[in-house]
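Annotators were shown the component list below and the corresponding predicted structure, then asked to write short factual statements about the assembly.
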Amino acid sequence: MRKTQLPSPASNVTIKDVAEHLGISHSTVSRALADHPYTNAQTKQRVRQAVDKLGYVPHAAARGLRQDKGTMVGLILPELQNEMAVVMAQTVAANCLKAGLQLVLAVTGDDPNIEYQHVKALREARARGIIITASPGMLDKTVELLRSIPTTQFSRRHALLNAPSVSIDGEQGVFGATQHLLQLGHTRIAYVGMDVDKSTGAERLAGFVKAHKQFGSRLDPTLQRLGPAMADFGRAAVSDLLHMGKPPSALVMGAGSMTMGALMSLRQAGLETPGDISLVGFGDPSWYALWSPGITAIGLPMFEMAEATTGLLMRQMTPGAQGESKSMTHIKIESRFLVRGTTAPVQKRSARRRA
Amino acid sequence: MRKTQLPSPASNVTIKDVAEHLGISHSTVSRALADHPYTNAQTKQRVRQAVDKLGYVPHAAARGLRQDKGTMVGLILPELQNEMAVVMAQTVAANCLKAGLQLVLAVTGDDPNIEYQHVKALREARARGIIITASPGMLDKTVELLRSIPTTQFSRRHALLNAPSVSIDGEQGVFGATQHLLQLGHTRIAYVGMDVDKSTGAERLAGFVKAHKQFGSRLDPTLQRLGPAMADFGRAAVSDLLHMGKPPSALVMGAGSMTMGALMSLRQAGLETPGDISLVGFGDPSWYALWSPGITAIGLPMFEMAEATTGLLMRQMTPGAQGESKSMTHIKIESRFLVRGTTAPVQKRSARRRA
DNA sequence: ATGAAAGCGCTAACAT
DNA sequence: ATGTTAGCGCTTTCAT
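Structure shown to annotators:
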């Protein structure tokens, strides 16, 4: 079977082929393509035509080898399930586009080995920068690798990694939510959130504790349920809470996925908010507002966070700001407490159990 | 300021440095690292140690140049707002990880120029494969470029691009929903969906029309509202529909984002489902089931679709299956109709307007 | 304004 | 089992 002569498929056309076709040297072609200052305008024209005609496609690897830098930016996240992750991806994608870079998305599932693998690949590709939500058990070698790449931490902050960060003020957020409930007269408030091995988990729990202390309210350890950030854990934890001898009259959720689970559990138990129990959700997916009677929530300024993170990374990637001059920036963004319909003053009779 | 001698930062250590350090040839190092069959085990050991000690990091571009292939797979989507996009990204990410490839995520906003830019960059990087939801106005040069890369189309299908595809059977889905409503006695059913310039938009509308024809029900053109796949369009369209002299008694939504908008509009108008009006949503985000009374919906087997798409791409990327032997595969996946609480038999009095 | 030539870091013959 | 050598396609001096 003879090869058809379509210009596009199997294009191994190089800069030399173009040069030969035009009877000029390949370095002239290179210059023309790069819009080099001292290049004949007419030559440029001819080169562009030849390029089109022959279907020449530059070889990124060759260029990357010469210039010792790649064209990508890495975004390393534990998962994509929450809205925040999606907003991050969108924002970084938009900025990459503007900068002519490619976004490499990596999902770790919080597995330190997978995390290492991604960072390594990015480093090998001479990635321009990395935005990462560090896994709790990040490997030393990963940290080391990261030190040689402009890095910005997002959401979680690793103790040993000396890179700027952007995170939510989870303590303030949960504190506000708890305070709100306390002021509403609730005394048995439960907190369902993430394990303290994640910095975010620890902070949010701290906010819960702090609010109780500050209001002189007694803290019942059995009302705190910590686990993985998954809907199912939230569901199970809330179910369990509802079956206690003295169930809580209010719920503060410490993660978006868990809020989903809480809703499932409540629905299954046939309980209503805020009639039977008050609820403060975490995060603010658009449907929270739609839910009747509207879910009271710890709202995250997602776009603001994403922009801040991307901005921090871009700054590091710009030649000027690098080196010794970079003062470490750690941005903490406050959540906005959104009072809607799922919280109300404590009822006389406690929440009834079952449907 | 003298440079500290940490092995990691500013690592320009090459394979030659490692060789020199060990007093051997650089090709031996290369072989050791590549686990070449005829290599002394002890040498391998020493090489690995030296690599660790010197902080050598392979240069992906150099390797890529030699082997004329990159390490990435592109996922090109119009947006990330819907759950399907997230599931796709997750699935592709998981498969890339297994294959040791990197996922490059590109968001086009359905802009043909941006789309071209992304495809071009991927082609230049010698990407291993691409999964794409083609924009309605895809440029010819984009199509041409795509022909030289293993490509799989997802969701939408471009007429001129000769690549396998996976898509939802939108016609079947909307047909089923409409039929359901028709059988419930509804005669004034509105359809709010995407413009017909997208293949998906055209198909879904076709399902709506087909159901009416098949059931001998009259089709009122004023009950069809087509526009961009955005929540706001859905909201506006439904509001408008509700203010008609003779408003519809049921709504079939042709896009997930629009369903969100419809819910907003209904809430704003103070109407209840299914009491005042019946509603069939599109897609099936997890909160549909939670919504009381549960949103009746055209459910998409998202994981199945994502797996099928990825599988199709992987097959093309494997040496064996390429070339003339590839019979074009177009997979059409049926939606699952989920009857929940927002649809009911038509009421005697039509939906009242306003709150 | 253009050509000639060197070399980026790696792999893969080809020797030995 | 290891060393030598030749490029991969490009950018970039250095000449001219």
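Statements collected:
1. The CA atoms of residues 72 and 102 of chain A lie 4 Å apart.
2. Residues 14-16, 26-27, 30-31, 34, 58-59, 61-67 of chain A lie near DNA strand D (CB under 10 Å from a C1').
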